[in-house]
Amino acid sequence: IELLKQHDPEVAHLIASEEQRQRSGLELIASENFVSPSVQAALGSGLTNKYSEGQVGKRYYGGNVYIDQLESLCMQRALELFNLTDHEDNDDEGWGVNVQPYSGSPANFAVYTALLKPHDRIMGLDLPSGGHLTHGFQTTKRKVSATSVYFESMPYIVNPSTGLLDYDELAKRAQMFMPKLLIAGASAYPREWDYAKMRGIADSVGALFMVDMAHISGLVAAGVVDSPFPYADVVTSTTHKTLRGPRSGMIFAKQKYMDAINQAVFPMLQGGPHNHQIGALAVALREAQQPSFREYARQVVNNAQALSEGLLERGYQLATGGTDNHLLLWNVRPLSGAKVEKVLELAGITTNKNTIAGDTSALNPGGVRLGTPALTTRGLREGDFDKVAQFLHEGYQLAQRVQGLTEERYEKAALKNFIELLEADASIQSE
Ligand code: PLP
Description:
Helix content is 46%, strand content 12%. The chain has 431 residues and is an alpha/beta fold. Strands 4-10-9-8-7-5-6 form a seven-stranded mixed β-sheet, with helices on both faces. Strands 11-12-15-14 form a four-stranded antiparallel β-sheet, covered by helices on one side. It has a two-stranded parallel ribbon with strand order 1-13. Keywords: Methyltransferase, One-carbon metabolism, Pyridoxal phosphate, Transferase.
């Protein structure tokens, strides 16, 4: 960074500012985390210089002797981490992995490209119910994701009053729509998935079953939530959320699908692998194999449950009443999630607005998503999360005080009230 300061002070300044923001605030975005210095070292290394289109041992460029070893090591560690190494390589029921996807969205699209024909039918959790854009999101007016442009999508939803997945309704929709691919996994669902039930539903309509474990892959690796592997044909993941690696993606699949998946990743959708990401991912996977990572993941869940308790005790409601994983959905109605997010940001607490069951607008939803992976990495424990709940409560009260204002005035007023509150606190402390 010293060198960068000399060569490009503008960028160095922005990096330093962002790092300072990350250090000085409370990071509650459920999909974010802090990587280790070792992961960061690999990510910022000379691996970024190398082209290596193709697969290990079958590259379109020379000079890949070390890159081949690195990608093999990364694949091996990925399979070991999820206990997928007990089948022979040529056994169709064994698992393979591709670690080249640039991130979670390209990983998902590569699976669709590999296993479906254009306009085949897919069924995933609807975005307002907590699903991800790449699972086929569209509105009545617009096909929002490429998945919904190139494939026909009909979502399933959570029960609007409980916020829980409704598997009977899902089964009915699947019978009606007959998807080729059923997708489990979400960006904002705080409860366990019944993978066995979903496998049964997929089988009953002749669909393949994919699980996108992007959010929970670190928790799966540590064994603190259920594993999808005994039930799925394909499992995709990002690597930068609870897994605490660099931004990247992975696709695990039964061997019989691996050729098609490898082809879809390259040459169909991507070019040269991002070797700096693959190197950093290998480091993160080794970290995740350590007993200390298992303790970390257990703490992430304990902390999410402590935060839930803290909010419930202060009179708030949570979608589904609590959490089994790393995230919770805080019901801030009658306030808007957008406004609560804004006030909290002014106070240095980063969250994101989120739809909760029954919401009709994604821009003005009634919920805020909160996650514990990042602050758990910083060493916070249950008692600390009770304090976080208190900060959120104070933020909510501030948001209430400024709620009637226009967007522009809202921000100023929230800031002013925040300063008043700080001054009041300071005078209490000096008394
Ligand atoms: N799948 C799920 C369930 C996600 O939550 C996300 C990102 O939040 C993705 C896929 C996409 O990941 P990326 O942002 O890395 O493309």
